[in-house]
Q: What sequence folds into this?
């Protein structure tokens, strides 16, 4: 007989509920495969997001058994508990329907943290000569691979209880810019990052670092912003 997996999926918005479906267990099956099968075989109206399916875009992020994950890179065999998995939308974001969330606040905070790159040169100027081994460039490179999947934002308890907190992804972005010699306003970015709801609100719990699918450490970036602020205040930066 075919082994079956019990899949509990959130349906509806905030007033919705978990519904259970049965899906055959398959070799190398991912959580995104399971969601897709439920949509195709049981619930055609099931709302969820995905794009690349190979761990590049991050759009398939959901909460699996209580933890935010990229579902395309999460194998069922690694997370199922007694033949069951529970799939919910990302935490800390408004629910649109089922597993789809409204990312507007997440991207607004990216902007509020000074995350927009302002070039010091135009496209008509020669490329900037940046030493890849310089301290600032190494700081920027260590944090620059964020793709805005919002997994860290969903994992952050401070975001959960403080809606004004800019969140780990936005502050991680600010850290890359204050260390980027091509950015025209590092001081302005720093002021936004240390303002109300900024890096001072971080409790350094490290949930963002533990859950980041690409191994970044927003915790370290936020600590860097705090340190840079202190050094700037005392004229040491």
A:
């Amino acid at each position: 007989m075919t082994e079956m997996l019990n899949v509990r999926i959130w349906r509806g918005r905030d007033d919705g509920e978990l519904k259970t479906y049965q899906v055959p267990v398959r070799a190398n099956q991912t959580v995104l495969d399971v969601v897709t099968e439920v949509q195709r075989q049981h619930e055609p109206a099931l709302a969820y997001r995905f794009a690349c399916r190979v761990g590049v875009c991050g759009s398939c992020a959901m909460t699996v058994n209580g933890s935010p994950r990229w579902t395309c890179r999460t194998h069922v065999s690694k997370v199922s508990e007694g033949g069951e998995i529970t799939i919910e939308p990302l935490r800390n974001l408004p629910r649109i329907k089922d597993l789809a969330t409204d990312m507007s606040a997440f991207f607004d905070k990216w902007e509020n943290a000074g995350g927009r790159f302002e070039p010091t040169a135009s496209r008509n100027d020669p490329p900037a000569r940046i030493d890849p081994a310089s301290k600032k460039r190494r700081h920027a490179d260590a944090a620059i691979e964020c793709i805005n999947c919002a997994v860290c934002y969903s994992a952050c308890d401070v975001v959960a209880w403080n809606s004004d907190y800019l969140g780990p992804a936005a502050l991680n972005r600010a850290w890359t810019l204050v260390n980027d010699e091509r950015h025209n306003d590092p001081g302005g970015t720093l002021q936004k990052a240390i303002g109300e709801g900024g890096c001072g609100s971080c409790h350094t719990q490290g949930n963002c670092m533990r859950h980041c699918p690409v191994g970044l450490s927003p915790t370290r970036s936020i600590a860097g912003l705090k340190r840079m602020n202190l050094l700037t205040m005392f004229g040491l930066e």
Q: What stands out?
A: The CA atoms of residues 94 and 102 lie 5 Å apart. The chain has two domains: 4-101, 104-233. The longest strand covers residues 4-11.
